[in-house]
Amino acid sequence: MTRILHIDSSARPGRSDQKPHGSHSRRLTAKFIEHWRSARPNDEIIYRDVGANPPAPVTGDWVHAAFTKPDDREDWMHDVLRESDLLVDELLGADIIVAGVPMYNFGMPAQMKAWVDNIVRVGKTFGFDRSREGVPYWPMVTDGKSIVVLSSRGDYGYDAGGRVAHLNFVEGGIFTPLEYIGITDQYGAAIEYDEFGDDRTQKSIALAEAETVAIAEKLIRKHATKNAA
């Protein structure tokens, strides 16, 4: 059985295919999950809506607690890290992470950044040792997970080689820290032209939905083979 962690981070409630002014990124993640369920109805889907229920941001107390050895932590440290522990456990238990991440001011929503900051955890998802020769850190998530980032953008040309690709900090902001902890199998699709509201918007929606289904199909084959091994 494959387990999927489905995350939405848009501040917009509802999907753009079901609600006026709904979220395009929620639309794409729903498309992925619906296609997956049609092919593999018995797989487990864990859902987390960080757009509606954002994780607490990292604080000085959080950093103090996270960098204290588990056996040396005081009770308040365990309290501070409780939500992060839950988020890390969800991540570690998943085979695939499907994240809806709209572009806000060229980057990810603050709610999604809080999720990233909570799951990049020393001793849990990456190791660090100052005395180690060469690179002092190493990834601890090494079981072949996949990450799919499904995004939306008001303008166009943010993909690699596009007219404003240098202004896109969404996918890199997700892929780079997840690669750091060991999740290197990475995929993405995005709806563009949202601010235009014309035929180009509709064409971009259709293209992104097709790309989303293609990613789902690829991962269905990949993880079916992995589970059978």
Structure description:
With 229 residues, this protein is of the alpha/beta class. The protein has a single domain, classed as Rossmann fold (3-Layer(aba) Sandwich), CATH 3.40.50. The protein has six helices and seven strands. It has helices at 24-39, 60-66, 75-93, 110-119, 170-181, 199-228, and strands at 3-8, 44-49, 96-100, 126-128, 137-139, 146-152, 185-191. It has a five-stranded parallel sheet, with helices on both faces. A two-stranded antiparallel sheet has the order 4-5. α5 links the parallel β6 (146-152) and β7 (185-191). α1 runs parallel beside α6 (199-228) and α2 (60-66) crosses α3 (75-93).
Blueprint (SSEs and pairs):
Blueprint: E1 3-8, H1 24-39, E2 44-49, H2 60-66, H3 75-93, E3 96-100, H4 110-119, E4 126-128, E5 137-139, E6 146-152, H5 170-181, E7 185-191, H6 199-228
Parallel strand pairs: 1-2, 1-3, 3-6, 6-7
Antiparallel strand pairs: 4-5
Function: Also exhibits azoreductase activity. Catalyzes the reductive cleavage of the azo bond in aromatic azo compounds to the corresponding amines.
Subunit structure: Homodimer.
Domain Flavodoxin-like fold: 3-207
Mean pLDDT value? 95
Quote the beta fraction.
Answer: 15-25%
Number of strands: 7
What percent of residues adopt helix (DSSP H or I)?
40-55%
CATH class: Alpha Beta
Give helix and strand order, one letter per element, not per position. Answer: EHEHHEHEEEHEH
Can you name the CATH architecture? Answer: 3-Layer(aba) Sandwich
Shape: globular
The number of distinct structural domains comes to 1
Main sheet: strand order: 2-1-3-6-7
Question: Which stretches are low in confidence, meaning pLDDT under 50 for 5 or more residues running?
Answer: none
At the third CATH level, what is the topology name? Answer: Rossmann fold
Tell me about the biggest sheet?
5 strands, parallel
CATH homolog superfamily = Flavodoxin domain
Function: Also exhibits azoreductase activity. Catalyzes the reductive cleavage of the azo bond in aromatic azo compounds to the corresponding amines.
Catalytic activity: N,N-dimethyl-1,4-phenylenediamine + anthranilate + 2 NAD(+) = 2-(4-dimethylaminophenyl)diazenylbenzoate + 2 NADH + 2 H(+); 2 a quinone + NADH + H(+) = 2 a 1,4-benzosemiquinone + NAD(+)
EC number: 1.6.5.-, 1.7.1.17
Cofactor: FMN
